[in-house]
Amino acid sequence: MEMILDYMESWLRPDSGGFDLSPLQMMLRAALIYGVAIVLVRLGNKRFMGRNTAFDLILGIILGSVLSRAITGQSPLYPTIAAGATLMAMHWVMAAIATRVDWFGPLIKGCPRLLIKDGEIQKDALRKCNIGGEDLQEALRQKGSIRKPDEVQVAYLERSGDISLVMKDKNTRILDVHVEDGVQTVRIHIGS
After folding, report:
1. Cβ–Cβ under 8 Å, residues 170 and 190
2. pLDDT at residue 113 in the model
3. Which helix (H) or strand (E) holds 37?
4. Integer Cα distance of 123 and 151 in angstroms
5. Closest CA to 166 of 176, 177, 153, 175
6. Most buried of the four, 59, 162, 167, 169, by CB within 10 Å?
7. What ranges make up the beta strands (E) of 41-140?
8. How far apart are CA 18 and CA 169, in angstroms?
9. Residue 125 · residue 114 · CB < 8 Å
10. How confident is the model at residue 135 (pLDDT cuts 50, 70, 90)?
11. Is 125's pLDDT higher than 80?
């Protein structure tokens, strides 16, 4: 076992300054760090890889930056892996606290902002979120071919940066169906 560890140490050079690593050594380090990153994400919280808040995005950026230094040899290998594990653990703990403490979640993840209420655009909210009218129109079109804000009950800028919509209830109902001489007549009521 000691011989295997010595062999790995000679190839990985965990305390290298980076400038004297061979391409093969960097490839081995890259493979090791890739495996470590997968384990960290699986043990930690993989949600930061999907639709995420700034809280999750920060972890992805920092984790990538820290672990990349281990590949290039700019930081010692094992302490860098330990730093990546620490970041993942901190993220997991903060996310766990955020789900259990009401005031902590909005503090680190942000709050959704109301952009449209009862079909009316909340212009102050748009300004505070740095969203222009054209940006809002684009989001409405992307969320279901909505042409006018008055079709929307509420719209929020979510913590992930996406815009979510709740459409107004149209209250469409069939009032009467009449068939005479092969012609079908349907009376419907469309209301808001």
Report:
1. yes
2. 92
3. helix 23-43
4. 17
5. 153
6. 59
7. 113-117, 120-121
8. 63
9. yes
10. confident
11. yes
